[in-house]
Amino acid sequence: MFPKEFLWGGAIAANQAEGAYLEGGKGLSIADVLPVGAQRIGKVSLALEKDTHYPSHDAIDFYHRFEEDIDLLAELGIKCFRTSIAWSRIFPKGDELIPNEAGLLFYDRLFNKLKEKGIEPVVTLSHFETPLHLVTEYGGWLNRKLIDCFDRYTKVVFDRYKNQVKYWLTFNEINHAHTIPFLAAAIDVTAITNEREKLQSIYQASHNMLVASAKAVLNGKAVNPANQIGCMLSLSPIYPATCNPADVFESYQLRRRSLFYSDVQLRGEYPKYFDRIIKENQLALVIEPADLAILSRGTCDYLGFSFYRSSLHEAGMKILGNTGGLLGKKNPYLEETEWGWPIDPLALRYVCNELTDRYQKPLFIVENGVGVRDEFNEQRQIIDKERMRYLNDHVAAMAEAIKDGSDILGYTWWGPIDIVSAGTGEMEKRYGFIHVDKLNDGSGSLSRTKKASFNYYRQIIQTNGLNRDFSVFVNNES
Fold it and tell me: Residues in the active site (predicted)?
């Protein structure tokens, strides 16, 4: 069923877990100025506001508690752990010439601890954590200056961690440049009312990030040719709302808007359909002569992607999205979570097949999970049946995709320990197998408690996906 070396794991992001947002010489990142999460952004603020609670500033204090947390994850039995390097820990402003040694030492300790426990690090270079100074000084990824800054940063971390990290990802959910551009591309388009101008900004920033991604691949391979460097997109599938051909074709075009990014990062060139997008929207992108050669040489080894839900699209409807993917019409055939996210495990099999057919490259499911509320019973246990059912159904769908012929490297549940929600800024929208005692207002002891799903996921890992029966854990017999 699952390959012998399959990488069962868990995933977090630095800005949602570490806290210590100015400790050890760290500078502010774009995530540090969001008090309420990506879904609730109105006008973007580029400065901290007084008397405002910023959940990411403390998060779950992973910065100070990572050793005990990794001990718990080792007990869980995970084979890999995806996290990000906070760019502003290494270059606090982003444009310095000399890196911050304290930040480098922190990740030395983190990766060494993972290796000590036999856990393979999977490291995202940029997970919605662009240094804030690069936005206020240069305008974010609209400015080619950031290509040089990112190039310097990636050279430093590839060289520093060449003996500790094998699996890398360049930009987290790069295709979210369209739906949450401030986090994904460090640009503020909220004041732009002209759609052509907005699209111009998004695609120019995207081009600059794509070049930076390709240069990062070249940097990583130069340091260690064995490095496996992937791209990362949000790729929950889009269904047409009806069999109306207009619904079908517009859904296809919308899907292609996301796959544009993986087309470039995996194939090394702009797809032909992009010519029409440029022409019809009168885009005037600044593309330097060397850029196309860099894109061609710096292709990614695998496609990492997040999957949470499917969406339902009707022609002509307003296109919206959040950290879970695109938002569409309500699907009457699917149940939803409390936060309105459809639960659609078959869609995971669907997208794995779609991506395999398109690219014939290895896939890595680096985010999948469900946010629910946890409740303690009288025995101070959390019997999280909803989470276990979701895990079972999606692992089953992944197994079917492997039978279909998909080459899947691994699966990292988002997130194995409760962290701050990137979408809503909440703590009480919980994903973890490990409960963290912290509430939305920042109160709590930060104590860690294993949920029933902890033992269930451990069983799945120990049996390499063969035993997915969770009835014993629901019946409090674990």
Answer: 367
